[in-house]
Amino acid sequence: MIRMMSRLEEAPKTKKERAEMRKRYALWFAVITVSFFTLLTCPLFAQQSIHNTEHPPRSLDGYIKMLESSDRGTWQMPQRVVESLVIKDGDVVADIGAGSGYFTGFFSKAVGKNGKVYACDIEKGMIDYLGERVIKEKLDNVSPVLCKPDDPMLPEASVDLIFICDTYHHIGNRDAYISLLMKYLKPGGRLVIVDFQKRETPEGPPVSMRIAREDIVKEITDAGFKLYADFYFLPYQYFLVFAK
Predict the structure, then answer these.
(1) How far apart are CA 223 and CA 174, in angstroms?
(2) Once rounded to an integer, what is the mean pLDDT over residues 215-244?
(3) Pairing of strands 185-196, 237-243
(4) Start-to-end CA span in the chain (Å)
(5) DSSP E strands: which ranges in the chain?
(6) Amino acid 153: pLDDT
(7) Strand arrangement, sheet containing 116-121
(8) Would you tell me how many other CB atoms lie within 10 Å of the CB of residue 154?
(9) Do 153 and 120 form a contact (C-beta atoms < 8 A)?
(10) Which of 142, 155, 167, 168 is the most buried (most CB within 10 A)?
């Protein structure tokens, strides 16, 4: 066991003793350093650091693996979420904060060959990944969009449904952003927000980063939207649908 010299130990007197003591201190420091970086790279810490970090994430590959983890479906329920929205053939959907495209494939199937899906993200790495996924899975009705943090950059009055999942709490100056979303929606278009409840849950970002459901409802209705539907089947998230 490595131990630091106690106050009761006699200080090294000879040159050889001093050199040996320096070696012991160096070894002690190396062990502490290795332990620290091992903690940083362990999966739990890595996942927590991703949730604590706004864009860009520390590790794009790690972020994609987290988004696509096999157990996410048990609590995110993507198919049930999309089915609940009753998307019609030919609809245009904007998946804002699409990330790896976790929901994008479900939307692609829902809108059909006559519809369109804009998969929007501010990370170029994510857009590159999405582009490869579109080709691999033959999602011909999906267009990846490299957008800005303050603007999803969609065609005006072109979208039937805007979907924002686990991303709303990252958006700055949300009042201005919501106004842009209103502009991009067609008359009668819908805005969907799925985000983590403001309480401790097994998944999701720290509570300090979350936004309470009632605060989101107030922000969006103050901008002119109406609360259209409110689903409660997701265990860790609220699922809100607003109408223009």
Answers:
(1) 10
(2) 97
(3) antiparallel
(4) 67
(5) 92-96, 116-121, 142-146, 159-165, 185-196, 226-231, 237-243
(6) 96
(7) 142-146, 116-121, 92-96, 159-165, 185-196, 237-243, 226-231
(8) 21
(9) yes
(10) 142
Q: Is 53 exposed, middle or buried (0-12, 13-18, 19+ CB in 10 A)?
A: middle
Residue 52: band (very low, low, confident or very high) from pLDDT cuts 50, 70, 90: very low
CA separation (Å) from 95 to 172, 209, 212? 18, 21, 22
CA distance 154 to 95: 11
Least confident of 60-64, 162-166, 183-187: 60-64
* Structural tokens at position 150: 């303050």
State the average pLDDT over residues 30-51: 38
- 3-state SS track over 186-232: EEEEEEEEEEECCCCCCCCCCHHHCCCHHHHHHHHHHCCCEEEEEEC
Location of structure tokens 């009632």: 214
Residue with tokens 């290795």: 34
Is 174 a residue whose pLDDT tops 60?
yes
Residue-wise burial string across 97-116, b where 16 or more C-beta atoms lie within 10 A, e elsewhere: bbbbbbbbbbbbebbeeebb
Q: Which two tokens stand for residue 124?
A: 């170029």
Q: What is the pTM of this model?
A: 0.75
CA distance 21 to 5: 9
Residue with tokens 């630091």: 4
